[in-house]
Amino acid sequence: MIVSIILFIIIFCVLVVSHELGHFLIARKNGIHVVEFFIGMGPSLISFEKGGTKYSLKLLPIGGACVFEGEDGQNMGEEQSEEGEGSFQKASVGARFATVLAGPVANFVIAYLFALIIVWFCGVMMPTISSVTEGGAAEAAGLQEGDVITRINGEKIHMWEDIRLAALIGQGGSMTIEYERQGEKDEVILNPVYDENGDTWYIGIMGGTDLKICTVPETFQYGFYVLEYTVKATAKSLVMLVRGQLSADAVSGPVGMVQYVDQTYDAVKDYGMSNVIINMVNIAMMLSISLGVMNLLPLPALDGGRLVFLLVEMVRGKPVPPEKEGLVHLGGMIALMILMVFVLVNDISKLL
């Protein structure tokens, strides 16, 4: 477990640092003064000041932040209050929008780099059918072993994982399957079959055995496909959670993620350090995308919520009063803290 905790802390630091570094670099480029750059929450373990910015590492691995001069009407010194130089509120709306957006964008960039590593060392599974379930929906539609699925409901299929995601999104609806068989293109209508025991819809095909080892150009191409797939899967999971199609147990905080890292580590450690590293990179990629997607949600206290206020400012031609926006984000932060406590208690309960 100690090794898993260390691995989680490394992953956590990489993701949070990349997110906050995105904010930091674009803020500095636009002349916005960063008061503090910190990783974690709670009391500081280590801190130092350089170039007018305080850098801190805090006790609890549950987030981080870039604190800007004059953000939400706070942290404004006398000089900044009078002259506005370095104040977040005095920067142009475009500069502020770019600064806020840079955090989630940085998460997608680092996730793409992780995807490149995964594709380069592991390759990708192509959307080739290895077998068809007897009496299943695919057999009834006329699909056969060796068929390569190219589109589902008009959406391009690049990898085997895309098929599984399309089946999940479809939720049992009819699927228009375009495929290639011995160089010939064709399409069929497939109607998934519901299984009461598994409480899911099955399309009746097996795959994930046609491994493609990528060249350098293909690595960049398929790295993007892996990124695209993971973003779609993350967004779909959020929608299913909101609709009640996923239980609260599907949500995990730091404790749950440490447990997941530990389970993964135990499963692959006997296969060598390279397997451990690749699996940790895969977890880091998924978490980085989750962090990016979550922060883009239009909710108070998140980057997406701040972007909403900036869009309102662009439309109105004047900003929402900083003190009012600050109150909204404060309320969002309180709600977020309550959610984090709930997730923490839920994670601990699953261990008992």
TrEMBL record:
<dbReference type="Pfam" id="PF17820">
    <property type="entry name" value="PDZ_6"/>
</dbReference>
<feature type="domain" description="PDZ">
    <location>
        <begin position="129"/>
        <end position="157"/>
    </location>
</feature>
<keyword id="KW-0645">Protease</keyword>
<dbReference type="InterPro" id="IPR008915">
    <property type="entry name" value="Peptidase_M50"/>
</dbReference>
<keyword id="KW-1133">Transmembrane helix</keyword>
<dbReference type="InterPro" id="IPR041489">
    <property type="entry name" value="PDZ_6"/>
</dbReference>
<dbReference type="InterPro" id="IPR004387">
    <property type="entry name" value="Pept_M50_Zn"/>
</dbReference>
<keyword id="KW-0472">Membrane</keyword>
<dbReference type="InterPro" id="IPR036034">
    <property type="entry name" value="PDZ_sf"/>
</dbReference>
<dbReference type="InterPro" id="IPR001478">
    <property type="entry name" value="PDZ"/>
</dbReference>
<feature type="transmembrane region" description="Helical">
    <location>
        <begin position="276"/>
        <end position="297"/>
    </location>
</feature>
<dbReference type="Pfam" id="PF02163">
    <property type="entry name" value="Peptidase_M50"/>
</dbReference>
<protein>
    <recommendedName>
        <fullName>Zinc metalloprotease</fullName>
        <ecNumber>3.4.24.-</ecNumber>
    </recommendedName>
</protein>
<dbReference type="GO" id="GO:0008237">
    <property type="term" value="F:metallopeptidase activity"/>
</dbReference>
<keyword id="KW-0862">Zinc</keyword>
<keyword id="KW-0479">Metal-binding</keyword>
<keyword id="KW-0482">Metalloprotease</keyword>
<feature type="transmembrane region" description="Helical">
    <location>
        <begin position="97"/>
        <end position="121"/>
    </location>
</feature>
<comment type="similarity">
    <text>Belongs to the peptidase M50B family.</text>
</comment>
<keyword id="KW-0812">Transmembrane</keyword>
<feature type="transmembrane region" description="Helical">
    <location>
        <begin position="326"/>
        <end position="345"/>
    </location>
</feature>
<keyword id="KW-0378">Hydrolase</keyword>
